[in-house]
Amino acid sequence: MPEHIDPAMTAEAIADDIVGAIVSHRLPPGTKLREEALAAVYRVSRTKIRAALLMLSKDKVIRIVPDKGAFVAQPSAEEARDVFAVRRILESALAREFVARATAADYKRIDKHLAAEKKALGGNDAQLRTRLLSDFHILLAEVVGNGVLTEMLRELSMRSAVITMLYQSRRDAACSSDEHRAFIEAARAGDVERAVQLMVDHLGHVEGALHFEDDGSSARGKDLVTALLA
């Protein structure tokens, strides 16, 4: 972060910067985000800080506890297991429908997305990388055309994205992208059973690669200003 911050910095830019600090592990799960300290760091009003925190809360990156304040999300291993268990059920069915419905135009769109994933993996924007890996699954649902399923997956993918953003390594993210490509190859070949198995295996690999060793204890006593200015 620059030494001198533009006083006109938008709430969106503040939210993006906080996310950057979270995904780079400068702000561990459970860190309290004090409004006064954030306002001092970004040289803006607390009203703008509240707007940024609300954005992050809607994306489930942070949680706002009444009368206590805002904290970096700290999803548990149990929550992750529940989320991925539901995803395996839904996305097994999704994989079958996708193979049956996907057109050449759909595959072209997904190939473009996979290229964006590959490019993001070569960069340092962990937020973009996480979003693209999550959006792959939403794209599949959009191809199938079931609005209810798409909305359910949006919610689950959002929760999964926060979990992976906090607990997945860059190497594991690269493996996820490779597995996306393998799924599309099987789907394009019309191999339904292989496509379904690849999807189930992929979600299992993502869940299995999460690292919950940091239970948030490192957040206690964390100097918020120092972390954001690092």
Automatic annotation (TrEMBL):
<dbReference type="InterPro" id="IPR000524">
    <property type="entry name" value="Tscrpt_reg_HTH_GntR"/>
</dbReference>
<dbReference type="InterPro" id="IPR008920">
    <property type="entry name" value="TF_FadR/GntR_C"/>
</dbReference>
<feature type="domain" description="HTH gntR-type">
    <location>
        <begin position="8"/>
        <end position="75"/>
    </location>
</feature>
<dbReference type="InterPro" id="IPR036388">
    <property type="entry name" value="WH-like_DNA-bd_sf"/>
</dbReference>
<keyword id="KW-0238">DNA-binding</keyword>
<dbReference type="InterPro" id="IPR036390">
    <property type="entry name" value="WH_DNA-bd_sf"/>
</dbReference>
<protein>
    <recommendedName>
        <fullName>HTH gntR-type domain-containing protein</fullName>
    </recommendedName>
</protein>
<keyword id="KW-0805">Transcription regulation</keyword>
<keyword id="KW-0804">Transcription</keyword>
<dbReference type="Pfam" id="PF00392">
    <property type="entry name" value="GntR"/>
</dbReference>
<dbReference type="Pfam" id="PF07729">
    <property type="entry name" value="FCD"/>
</dbReference>
<dbReference type="InterPro" id="IPR011711">
    <property type="entry name" value="GntR_C"/>
</dbReference>
